[in-house]
Amino acid sequence: MVRATYAVSVDWNADGDFSDTGETIALSRVRRIVTDRGRDRASQAAGFSVAGRCSIVLDNRSGDYSSFNASSPLTGLILPGRKVRIQAGSGSFPYTFPIVFNDNVLWAGFLEHIIPVPSVSGDVVANLEAVGPLSKLAAKKIDAAMQTSYRSDLAMGKVLDAAGLAAADRSLDTGLTTFNRWWVGDQNALEAARDIEKSELGFLYETADAKIGFKNRHARLSGAALTSQITFSDAAGATNPYSGVTQDDPLPTIFNIAGTDVQLFTVGSLAVLWTHPETGASSPTITRNGGTRTFTARYPVKDSLTQDVGVDAWTTPVVTTDFLVNSASDGSGTNISANIVVAVTKTGNSMEITLTNNHATLDGFITFAQARGTPVSQTDPVTVLFSDATSKTAFGDRMFPERPPWIPTSQEADDWARFIVSVGKDPQPMLRMRFSANRNQTMFHAALIRDVGDRITVTANNDTKLGLSRDFFIEHIRHTITPDGGAEHWTEWDLSDAEQFSDFFVLGTSRLGETTRLAY
């Protein structure tokens, strides 16, 4: 058995470290830890990463974790967004304690809330809940400027920028698909990222140390993804035995029809795309001597009947041509438009306009304002479908539910659809495997360092009678830990079949004659 050690830390004062008083929580106060991270189902085609979660039960007999307890040393510091980190290590393996942050982080994310669970006659605890970095995308609506001939990873970077994620908090593969035209207009950031992920056929995910990762569609067809990192078995006397394994129903992830629309665009002539609706007595005021007024021009408006979908380029407003500011709302006063400074932020569907009144003595009224730009219209879409007749006969028609919006050509859409059907037309094994990380050093090491996307081998043709002995990819990781004294640590992995990806031929990587299908 491995005697493990753990560290639970919260950056209470949000200064970017965990070294201040009380930020590493004594293990005697930690009753239980449960962490989750990875896809919502063990399918490489139909599973998507969701925001990870961490639940920690804390001893609260001191009242430290009660947010309304004025005598708590954490008064005013129990706030959402504080970084939470779970680390683990073992004295007899090559780990040290305190543990190096980047090496042995089991889970990291951000505080959601702490809820005290009081009791007048028994135990007093508090439940700490934290969420992974994808939650930041899910909570934010964004806009992004229109781009042409734009690679998928560059688009993903723009989404993360707009969502406020720092460059240091991401790791993006170079994309393999270049979009003809890409932008975001008042869309949820996670939805925008998903659209890119689906169009690339890549993988958006959370890392253990609370970063956002993006893998291109060849990530599992080369390098370490081709080699199993550890073998778990149900054989008697196995070095790395698992304690339980279950097989999920493969039928919901059979897809024998896939298709999408290919959408091209045309750019129109410069035109007035928006006009401020308030004039006359309703004209907005800008106060004198540095007062500002900000408004946003949007085009097209939602539910508009126009075929236009966005703006290729907005024109920065020009005095007199695009706006007038007067000292009287009816336009009879002094024209102070020349004293107005314009600042803009342009995206594919909007232009935020800030007007600053630098006149020293006169307030101004915006008696007229408009926004010009070159509209982008969509052409008639081309729908591309591919299906497998043998699979349809065996399982009925099963349409792949996703339709990526940014596929650039009919040929690439056909390649995309063929790839989806090739990996989805037949049943594939999906497993959930559970093992005791404390059993030996190799298994403890695997629990700590194996990540979503890693390849492992599972033998399940002995006691379990599943008739399987093959490679799988880890798609979801769950840890359940009773940490005080390293008493108990259980790890669960949701696993997708790796062999359905093993016979693709990748130019520059695969060896001729050993693989049978050309990868998309």
List the helices and strands and how they pair.
Elements: E1 4-10, E2 24-25, E3 30-39, E4 49-59, E5 83-90, E6 105-117, E7 125-131, H1 134-138, E8 141-151, H2 152-162, E9 170-172, E10 178-188, H3 189-200, E11 203-206, E12 212-215, E13 231-233, E14 244-247, E15 257-262, E16 265-267, E17 271-275, E18 285-286, E19 291-298, E20 308-315, E21 323-326, E22 340-346, E23 350-357, E24 364-378, E25 382-387, H4 389-395, H5 410-424, E26 430-436, H6 441-449, E27 455-460, E28 468-482, E29 488-497, E30 504-505, E31 517-518
Parallel strand pairs: 9-12, 13-27, 30-31
Antiparallel strand pairs: 1-2, 1-5, 3-4, 3-28, 4-7, 5-6, 6-7, 8-10, 11-12, 14-26, 15-25, 16-24, 17-24, 18-24, 19-23, 20-24, 21-24, 22-23, 26-29, 27-28, 28-29
Short key terms for the protein model shown above:
mainly beta; 13-stranded mixed β-sheet; 6-stranded antiparallel β-sheet; 6 helices
Describe this structure as you would to a colleague.
The chain is mainly beta. The protein is built from six helices and 31 strands. The chain has helices at 134-138, 152-162, 189-200, 389-395, 410-424, 441-449; strands spanning 4-10, 24-25, 30-39, 49-59, 83-90, 105-117, 125-131, 141-151, 170-172, 178-188, 203-206, 212-215, 231-233, 244-247, 257-262, 265-267, 271-275, 285-286, 291-298, 308-315, 323-326, 340-346, 350-357, 364-378, 382-387, 430-436, 455-460, 468-482, 488-497, 504-505, 517-518. A hairpin with a 5-residue loop joins β11 and β12. α2 (152-162) packs antiparallel against α3. The two termini are 46 Å apart. Residues 92-102 have low confidence and may be disordered.
